[in-house]
TrEMBL record:
The keyword Nucleotide-binding does not apply. Pfam families: MFS_1. PROSITE patterns: MFS. The chain crosses the membrane at residues 46-70, 82-102, 114-131, 137-159, 171-192, 204-224, 251-273, 285-309, 318-336, 342-365, 377-399, 405-427. Its main location: membrane. Residues 44-431 form the Major facilitator superfamily (MFS) profile domain. This is CynX/NimT family MFS transporter. Signal peptide: none annotated.
Amino acid sequence: MSAETRTEGSAAPSPVPPPVLVDAEAGVPASAAGAAARRALLAHPALLLAGIVLASLNMRAALASVAPLVGEISGAFGLSSTASSLVTSVPVLFLGVGALVAPWLGRRFGAERVLLGALLLLAVGILARVLPSVYALYGGGILVGTAIALLNVLMPGLIKRDFPDRAAAMTSVYTGAMIAGATVAAAAAVPLEKALGGGWEGSLGFWSLLAVVAAVAWLPQVLIARGRTGHAVRAVPAAGARPVSVWRSALAWQVTLFMGLQSLWSYVLIAWMPTIFTDHGMSRSTAGVVFAFNNLIQVAGAFVVPLLAGRMRSQRPLIVLVTTLVAAGYAGLMVAPVEGAWLWSAVLGVGQGGAVGLALTLIVLRSGDAVTAARLSGMAQTVGYLLAAAGPLAAGALHQATGSWTLPICVVLGVCVAALTVGLFAARDRTV
């Protein structure tokens, strides 16, 4: 990204900010103790990278592991199509609700401690979902969504803070890891069910182990960064800093809407892709493998697109590319879902992975500093995931009402058009 990136509504080059160490959560220059803790943390880049990758592996695994098992879960509790969609819609809804409190928690306790707590909460939520109660199923989904929201919101600000010169590359690493976790979880759902005794409960509960492993990896970072946040840090005046209200920025809203619309089309697929295939005669195990293949292909898009985006002044060509691929894949699911299943899964995978990677990269690229990145991340993921939560629920309700997947897919094609429109504005060479 060029140093001459323009601020929103201005063609004048932005002044290069002084090399002041800023706390991304608190929005102020770090205290002496905070700066020392930051240097100690950055002295262990391998530890920091391992923590980011392991946390990222958990950011979709608990969601993707449900989709191949929705039929069995619905059967176990006697759920309708609309009620079944809540199994995936509830966590997505709380991705938005949890994002509301993530910035405050980051300011109060520091990103490292909140990320550790989020991973532990995620493990508890995953285990709660397998209890023999429909209330626990949905309650566990609330905990899972809230935990993932904290991971989602704090990660971009942390990357902008600790890797300011490699933000796009690090975004590609963590989005790639996020989708890799989803791929493994989707592919392993049915085999784990068989290996662990034939019940869906063991397959879902297994992924709590991954969250615990990631929490263990974050513990040393919490100890190293201890003292970096707190009243002493927040009391330091932000000399020369101009507070940015992202909620009043048109550019911030454009980034937010693109985040929400691409999340909507992705979570519709996470909730319903295997069911679309099985409703057209594909076996459940094959549908799970095709769904896992879709997630695997997303890794390529999520890794490559952010790298390309970081080298471009305007990301408009990438907006056109990813939205066109997603629209083509959805159209294929409507016309020939089983016959072209592998092709549509591949096309959708590249588009989905590229879109989520691009959405997260836009948060970083459209932000002038780490503080704005943290605020824009909170806004984009609060509003974006609240919008996305409507996708699986609406698709399930439309399918139940019509007995077909044609109308739900047509609605998603309209979402693709809207994402293309707003994305072209979000991809302009501006900063909030």
